[in-house]
Design goal:
Number of helices: 1
Structural class: mainly beta
Helix content: under 10%
Number of strands: 11
Distance between the termini: 40 Å
Radius of gyration: 13 Å
Length: 127
């Protein structure tokens, strides 16, 4: 099993930056692919980014590509989401999730493929 705890959310002005962290416990993290998702008020939860267990592959939604960077430190069992040039439309609760399996590129946006989820951290971007 994998337990996940997000942190780093907060209130920031448009154009600012935040770094979210997803701290994991459980050895299964070492071979888990990690996804970041977000859910804005009144909207469905959407994929933001994903990183493979080996760090060899990173994936981003079109809405954040070029502004957000996902990374992981397997020694610390932590995944990061560096967010820059933030926009009011980035306001949401951000979740990290862990899942295992091959061909991550084919399923990184599929929430049903992630059995382990954190509790979420709120990001609010003011205009």
């Amino acid at each position: 099993q994998v337990q996940l705890v997000e942190s780093g959310g907060g209130l920031v002005q448009a154009g600012g930056s935040l770094r979210l962290s997803c701290a994991a416990s459980g050895r299964a993290f070492d071979w888990s692919n990690i996804g970041w998702f977000r859910q804005a008020p009144g909207k469905e939860r959407d994929s933001v980014a994903g990183i493979s267990w080996s760090r060899a592959n990173e994936y981003y939604s079109d809405s954040v590509k070029g502004r957000f960077t996902i990374s992981r430190d397997n020694a610390k069992r932590t995944v990061y989401l560096q967010m820059t040039s933030l926009k009011p439309e980035d306001t949401a609760v951000y979740y990290c999730a862990a899942g295992q399996g091959q061909s991550f590129s084919a399923w990184y946006t599929d929430q049903n493929k992630y059995p382990y989820w954190g509790q979420g951290t709120q990001v609010t971007v003011s205009s």
